[in-house]
Every structure is written in C-alpha cells, then in structure tokens.
Amino acid sequence: MKKKRTLYLVHHSHTDIGYTDRQEKISRYHVDFIKSVIRFLDSIEDEHPEWHGFNYTCENFWQVEQFLENSTKDEQAKFETYVRSGQIDISLSYLNMTELVDDAVLNKKFAKAKAYVEGLGVLKESAMTADINGYSWGYAETMAKNGIKNLYSCVHTHHGMFPLFKKQQPFWWQTESGEKLLVWNGDHYQTGNDFLLVPNSDQSKQYGVEGYTEAEADLQFAETERRIFAHFDLLDEEGYQFNYVPAMISGIVTDNAPPNPRMMEVIHRWNAKHGQTVELVLVTLDEFFNRLRKEAATHDFPTYSGDWTDWWADGVGSTPAPTKIYRDAQHKYRVAAKLVDDVIEGRPDLLAEGENQLMMYAEHTWGYHSSVAQPWNTFVNDLDYRKAAYAINANSLISRHLDDVLASLGEESIQMNREPYYKIINPHESVRHEVAKIYVKHWETVDDSFFSQSTEGFCEVVDCQTGEVIDSQVANSSLGKEVSFNITLKPKEHKLVRLRRVEPNHAYRSNWNHAHIGTDRVEDVASYLGYEHHVTPFGIETDHFIIELDEKVGISSLIDKQTGEELLHPERKQAPFAGVYERTPIKTDACTERRLMGRNRKGRVAQRYDAKLKDIQVKENGCLYSVLEMSYELEGTGMYTVSMRIYKNIPRIDVTVRISKNNEWAPENLYIPLPFKYGADNELYIEKSGTVLRPAIDQLPGTNTEFYLLDNGLTFTNGKNSLVVALKDTPLITLGGLESHPIELCQLSSAVKNNELVYSWPMNNFWETNFKVDLAGFYEFRYSLFLTAHSESPEKVLTEAAEVNEGILTIDYNPSPEELG
C-alpha cells in the first residue's frame, strides 16, 4: 500500500505591475485583495463554515505596504490580528525583481519588511517569488543578512528554465559569506489551478446555459480527481522522494488575481472522499517551510553555492533610454550615500521616495501584455511611459537629494562675476587618480576674460594649496569649454583649485618649415630621431597602451605596454565596439516568431550584420588625451560612431558609442563587442548586486550561461594583471557566439564559456508579449577600460569600476579668506 500523500496548496495573488493594467490600478487591486481576505475570514464562523481552513499568503511586502497606506485603523488592526493567528502570512520579499536593483536599496526594503513583522511580535523567516527566473548571488546574501532563512521559487519557464535540471526539490543555497538559505525549487506559480479546485473554474469550460449546475460540478470534480492522481503518478515516474508536494494557487488563472475562499469547498469535498490517500491542505508559506525544516532534519538536502542567473534580466534591453537614466540615478544614489554623515543629511524624504521609484522600475514587468502584438495601442504606450517614469522620477528625486548634499558642502549656484574657484571631491574610500573636469559656460569669464574660439593657451589650473600649475587640456563641449586636468585625491579628500588666465602667445610660427609637416598642414610622417609622433589614424601609443588601427575594421591590436600582453581575444569576430545588428525575419507573425525562439534570443535564420568602417579621424590631441573617432555603417541604424578618449598618462580609455537606431517590428538585437582577454591564463569576473563571480563557473547547476545583468562591470585577469571594463549606461552582456544554438545550462563542461567572447547587449525587443518593440532613437552608451596590476583581487578592481562609474565631483565654490590662506 502506498503511503498517504499530501498536496500542500499556498494561496497567493501574483504581482505583475503593469502587465494586466495600469501600475497604480494594480496597486489598488492588491489593497482591495487584502481587504477582501479580511472580510472572508470574518465571515467564516457565522456565514461560511464551508470555508473553514481558508488562509492567504501575501506574495510580498509591497502588497502589505500598499494596504497599510490605503486602509483604516480598524482594517489594519484586523489584518494584524489575522497575521498573528497565522491565517494571513507575509512573504518577506519586496517585489518580484530583476537584477537591475542593487543590494543597498534592496537591503532597505528587506529590512523594512522584517521590522514590520517583528513589530507585530511574530516570527517570519520566509520569502517567495513568482514568475521571475533567477536571483543574483548577492540577492541571497541580502536575504540572509535580513533574517530570511527560507525561499520558495516559482519559476515560469517561458523563455527561461528552473535550475538543478529538476523542479520540485529542496536545496540549501550557500551565500558567498557562508550563510545558508533553505530553498524550495518549485513549479509555476499557478500549478494548483491546473487541478480545478476553484468552483466554476474558467479552465474547465464546463458551463451550461443554466449556469454552473450540480451536474457540471460533478464533471469538474471528476476532472480534478483525474488530474491530481495523474500528478502524483508523474512524480512517482520521475523518482520523486517525498510523500508531499507543494503547489501555488490563485483565485483565478491570471496575474494580479483576486483571492477566492471557495476553493475550500472543493478541498473539503476531496478530503472527505480521498483524504486517506491524498490529502489536500491549504497552508501558508511559513507553515510549508516549518514542515520542510522538519524534513531537513532527517534528509540530506544538497548544498549549492553561486549565482542563480536570471533568464528574464534582458527586459532592460528593450528600454535602453530609461535604463540609462536609471543607472545614472543609481550612481548618484551611491555617491550621495558616501557624502552623507552626521552633519550633512541631504533630503531623506526625497531619498526614500527615490528608493521606491528605483524598486518599481527594477520590478520584473517590462510592459503591457500586448506590447508586441499591438505596439500602436494607446494602453501599451500609456504603460510604457509609466514604466519609464519610475526611472525618471528616481533620477529626479535622487538628484535633488544630491544637490542638497552638495549645497551643504558649499556648492554655489550660478553667479555673475564669480571668481573661478572649484572644489574637487573624492567621495570614495580609496585613493583616486582621476581626470577632473571643469565646465566654463559661454558667459563665464576667467580673470575678466571670455574664452576665445580657440581651446588652447587661454587658462591654466592652479592647486590653491600648493600653488602648483596642473597640466590641463581644453575642449569644446555642449556645456561650454571643458577643462580637464589630472588629479590625485586621497580617500574622502576635498581639493580647492582655480582657473587662471594665461597671456596668449602670438609668436609667429612657420610650422611648415619642420620636417614632419608640409605646407598642407597634415602631420603624417612617422616618428624619427628628434621627433616623436604617437597619435595618428594608423595607431596611438600612450604610457600604457599601444593601439593599432586597421582601415577596414578599426582597432586591430590593443597591447598593455607594461607587460607586452595583447588584450584582444584571438578568436574575435569583430573589432572592439564595432557593432553587430541582428534581425529575425517574421515568417509567421510578430508574436509567434518570438515565442518559437525559446531560450535563444534570436531565430535560427537570424540575419546578422557587422559594422563596416567608413572613416577614422583624430579629433583632438593634447597633453592629457587624444580623441579618436571611428564612423561605421551598420544595418538597422542611421548612424554608428565610436569616440575614444585615450589618456596619455593614466591607464584608461573612455569610450562612447553613439547610435541612431531605426524602427523595426521584427525581433532584433544590437550588440557592442568587448572581445578582450588577458593572456592564456585569463579568467573573466563580473559583479552583480555586490557579489563578484566567474560566469559559467560560480553558478547553480542548470542556470543560464547565455547572458548576465551586471552592476558595475567586468574584468579580464591572469591573476597578476587585469583589464577592467566599467559599464556606465547599459548593464547586459552576452557570453559566447551570437548564432542560434542549443542552450547549454551551467555544468562542469560549461566552464569553457568563461573564456569565450563577450558582447555588451544594449538593445533587444525579442519577447512576444510585453517588451517595448520600438527601439528607434538616438543613444549614447559609455564604457571605460582601464588596467590594474600588482595582483589586485577581482573584488578590488570591480570596486574600482564602480568608482569610475560614479566618478569624482567638481562643484563651483567660493572659498573663504581663511581657506585661501
């Protein structure tokens, strides 16, 4: 005789903010859902005894937060009573997130949820997620830090996949610091609805003209019997080891579904007939994990560590413009946090609302469900602008907070006839060797003189403490004249500088008399004894890099001058930053074509185009840096230009890729090659949510090795030297070849992918439901390449990537006489 089985059901409402309705409307729905749960529970004893045993799990704390902000004191008191009694449970996750959110903001949200339940005097240690396909390793660390010990994952394998090559199994997820979370690697978040436990279920399609009759109820119950027994038979065939199995269930089969206590009517009917064989039990999330923890005491659940790489992280590539605004908000948020202390507070009210907006943009829903099928639809565009507004509002609020912080540090507003003093601020905990920038507006003067059209020989930068003249270079900018200068700042150091007028040199020069330049004023003679010329359209040499340029592709060689190591991958298919465009022709319809891609992000017949170089020009060449501009022709774009600012005295290259993207309804991708490597012993490290790992190696088995959403950047290292790429605006990278191929999940054999080609992936529109289909517009994506040595750890160099992205600060400043000595 078989052992008695138990089907544990967890009733929840999946939050998908912006997929089924307006974002603010969905907030209202979830407030009303909790209020209705309270009414249902109130009515059981006197009005609906058939609902006895009903309970409800709030999928995340965001739902609770919305309820607390939009309910009466009486409603809140009843809610808290039912939480204490265990009839309402609270998952300590905040929302179903993408990896775009960083650990600092996420930590605050987890801490807020934990503080709330502790204030009620109840022990809550569990979190659940639904729909999303993974979490960064740092996400696990942040959960553990906030007392979350259990995680229930309901992965939706549409364009994704559960880990471990098998679902419905528990495991211990070990964090980087050694903490362990108990995880149930579950099934889809509405698996319980497949059993037709909700009367008059929309899935059964057994409606008569007279309504839902008793006969039809019997027919549906018979189907329920068939499905539940078949479910356990399948588990037996797969060697399932437990005599119980959990399933999530919603009130109806839709996202943002209302709660429905009527499922208890069918559950009681089932248990009366089959309870001795298979018992159905509606439990809360905490109740399930209490049961699982007892099981863990007698079973040896496996332990895994590493990244649970998200298959759904690529939504950010469908909205590259607001994602860039979001990334800028993150950088400002971190800089402000480094400047705030007991004296300087800024605007905590703006900061808190900015955090809310950051969370809402990073939430996993990336548009309305018919975004691809009907891209012209008013509702589609309405929700798209609302989604973008979260990033825009976050940036605005955090910028205002940072402005307040800088004002406390002495930042001056626009003033007429202000003396050109500036304070340079290093907000970081490390020494920074940087290029600082001062922008002089067209109406501003230096020692009562306006800039001439020329950018040379007008002013100099003076260190006010030492009187030293600092080497500087001037360029034109949309903000006016950009004055750049090298500076070294100690941790948290503030340095005062000023601009000083220089007498112009009107000496007559007959440059054409020199042997390296003719009367045409073109300098194209190679270096010779007595004349060195290291900047040409054929190549550039600095103290740290040797760059060779090819007139057909662009960069053909990049050498670390200190070690002689070639930094370009020997198997590269394209030159660095020379774009690649893909388009999959529509043979069916716009939605079906995308669905058939599965876990590939392109079709098998995808058309792929490499950028073709049209021109190379040296735009600027001064004492600090040269600017090299490469113009390309690329399918799908009206303009594709790569501008490189190559510094002469520091080991850094800043790259800006400027794109004019055309509109296209077909599935498409745009990639920017990063074909780098540091020697034969190269390893690739990336940073996600505060955790550093080796992609395709430091991951859970069975997870995604195709692409990754990074926080700050990546580094190619041989253990002694490293080339670091800081990603300022666009966080996605792909690993390996671009061709459509069978998807290899993470396993021992996938480690070879760690040395494969890397591409930045700023744009895609492949998802068939809710991705923004129109990528058209003008874009500017920025990257910084820099070298490190002395065996610095990947953690340290990727912290430096974060500091490069965040930068140092320059503020207009009016010093006191005491400061000037």
Automatic annotation (TrEMBL):
The lineage of its organism: Bacteria, Bacillati, Bacillota, Bacilli, Lactobacillales. Residues 7-305 form the Glycoside hydrolase family 38 N-terminal domain. Pfam families: Glyco_hydro_38N. SUPFAM superfamilies: Galactose mutarotase-like, Glycoside hydrolase/deacetylase. CDD domains: GH38N_AMII_like_1. This is Glycoside hydrolase family 38 N-terminal domain-containing protein. InterPro entries: Gal_mutarotase_sf_dom (IPR011013), Glyco_hydro/deAcase_b/a-brl (IPR011330), Glyco_hydro_38_N (IPR000602), Glyco_hydro_38_N_sf (IPR027291).
